[in-house]
Predict the 3D structure of the following.
Amino acid sequence: MHESRSMEHGEGPATVLAIGTANPSGAIVPQDEFADQFFRVTKSEHLTYLKEKLKRICQKTGIEKRHFHMTEDILRAHPEFLDRELPSLDARIHIVATEVPKLAASAAAKAIAEWGRPATDITHLVFSTYSGCRAPSADLQLASLLGLRHSVCRTILSLHGCYGGARALHLAKDLAENNRGARVLVACSEITLVCFGGPDGGNLVGHALFGDGAGAVIVGAGPFAAGERPLFEMVSATQTTIPGTEHALGMQVTGGGIDFHLAIQVPMLLGHSVERCLLDAFASSAAAVGDDDAGDVAWNDLFWAVHPGGRPILDKIEAVLKLEPGKLAASRHVLREYGNMSGATIVFVLDELRRRRREEEADRDDDHQLPEWGAMLAFGPGITIETMVLHIPQAN
Ligand SMILES: CC(=O)CC(=O)SCCNC(=O)CCNC(=O)[C@H](O)C(C)(C)COP(=O)(O)OP(=O)(O)OC[C@H]1O[C@@H](n2cnc3c(N)ncnc32)[C@H](O)[C@@H]1OP(=O)(O)O
């Protein structure tokens, strides 16, 4: 009985086997033009104080450009999107119900092509989005766009916000390790059209920060098929909620679209908690690999995949962990090029990390070792912190 149960589990930790990302083709907006464009298209030029404030905020985001599905043509067809007091949720959901899975399918097609096996070999699908206000939802539509088998086990994660991608990877790890042969497609797709609206004093930071994008990852545990190439082992994963912070970060579905709330204290609250989360995650990774010393880590000896929720969040994490400059380079790069794409962002960071690593591998001399161990961090409403210990297998 015990032997047959162990035959049902994967061998070793779940592993990232392929990564794909995509952005919508609607519009690419340079951050230094965003405030002018935003106030023009929302017919809010008269709100000069708010426009100046948005310009100040945009300059401090660490963002250079963002991609959006929303265009001026869509706004002309839906003038109700400008006024959050008008009912517009149905029209928004109608658009994203098609576009969110379509964007996810572009990212997933790249991941599946890299993986090298047919889409019908995918056994599980975990889809995360804040735009999934329908059933059946984006997961079913993605399964049909990709031609997944009808028996694929689907899970949709809704409104997890910026930790949605990390939560989906954590769940994929559990699925892959507990179902021998499972190959889990993680897909995360976020389109800000559901949150778009004219400016008011409370939503400027969200408008300055969020962008559209999708990320997809194939996750599986051993035994691996010929051609499957492990990129990152997911050694251990934890989730922590910071007590008493449920009002600091949030999303609310209203008749006029989805509202974001980001308290000014978020970077500080994360700064207070992040080291404890990392210590706990590394202690469980030491237990997972059966090595007491594996829990003793110097933060600068790791590689880092941190969700770039905002520039001050990265600065705070860098400061509290005393990280050397450049340790969060992949996160800063993604923030600069795409903004905060909520749950999808962490997949872009993993993709950027492996791209940089390949370049560094090609350039390094023999006595310069690249870090084998790494940490992934993502945050969202709760305040919830997802932490994962990553390891790069030797063959890479
Ligand atoms: C919901 C999810 O799940 C999403 C997630 O990713 S979770 C993480 C979300 N990210 C955040 O919460 C961090 C967002 N904040 C930022 O990126 C930066 O604070 C910022 C770019 C907005 C400003 O940068 P900064 O270094 O703090 O500059 P600072 O000069 O202090 O602030 C600029 C202005 O922004 C205002 N501001 C800063 N943070 C604010 C916030 N959270 N809400 C409202 N206003 C804010 C300041 O009051 C200031 O206003 P004035 O110019 O009128 O004085």
